[in-house]
Amino acid sequence: MPYLPLSVLRGGGRIPYKRAMDASFLKMHGCGNDFVVFDERAGSLGLTPARAAAIANRRTGVGCDQFIVLEPPPPGSKADVFMRIRNPDGGEAGACGNATRCVAWLLERENGHRTPVIQTISGLLPSEILPGGRVRVDMGAVRLDWRDVPLAREMDTLHVDLAEGPVRDPAACSMGNPHATFFVDDVMALPVETLGPLLEHAAIFPDRANIGFAQVLAPDRIRLRVWERTAGLTLACGSAACATVVNAARRGLTGRRVTMIVDGGTLDMEWRGDGHVLMTGPTAVSFHGTMDLDRYAA
User: Fold this and answer.
1) Same domain for 127 and 74?
2) Which of 31, 64, 96, 102 is catalytic?
3) Catalytic residue among 102, 173, 237, 242
4) Residue 221, domain CATH
5) Which of 203, 208, 260, 293 is the most exposed place for a label (fewest CB within 10 A)?
6) Mind giving me the DSSP string for 111-159?
7) Which residues partner with 126 through β-bridges?
8) 102 catalytic per annotation
9) pTM as predicted
């Protein structure tokens, strides 16, 4: 069966949701950053934070780095869809670049529109379907003030007073969610799974943070590994790739256009002069299915 958006998985029309059970979903990924995607544009499925967390569990649910729900855009919005993002613990996130690209691809398959606009709680994210199926998304303007990250106290976000074991002196910014980037000599030699949770919960980050470990390979090439809030070590993190190109350019380590090598593939990044960050990369559908949502406690 061809890969189709949720609304056309059956019979070419929108799936009739008569009750919570037998809800259709897609499992998708961008460079290995994986998502479970549900469609609530036709009506609520009762996807509470607790239910989302249960489905996101890799042992007892479907498993994913982020849980995605498509909803109607707010009245008057210029968006084609509202994308609600939940972390594996059910908490809501403001940005997810790889999921945005996946949803843009779905919308193009649904209506043929090659420049869909996706709205999240952090704002509008214009996207473009490129030849060959790659997707570019404008992740919006980076925010650099310490209050925007946020940090616990006033500080220069280019040099955050934080150290743990072999890493120190990260740069921080917000891409709709908090990020800190440590620049290191050999990213593959770092115990990321040990350092990640300690740094995620560091007191300087009142909302916790996504932690990037970046090795600059050339002025236009970076190797990146990311410990994501609540999700742990992931194969890719789009918003972290955005934060990394910004922080690297701010420190003069790279230019504003960078190929970002992550554990699951490569992303092409650009920090434009207007402050917006563009991310381009692949998307993929792993499988589609149905589930009885009543089996997951709401």
Assistant:
1) yes
2) 96
3) 237
4) 3.10.310.10
5) 203
6) H--SS-EEEETTEEEEEEEPGGG-EEEEEEE-B-STTTTT-SS---TTS
7) 117
8) no
9) 0.89
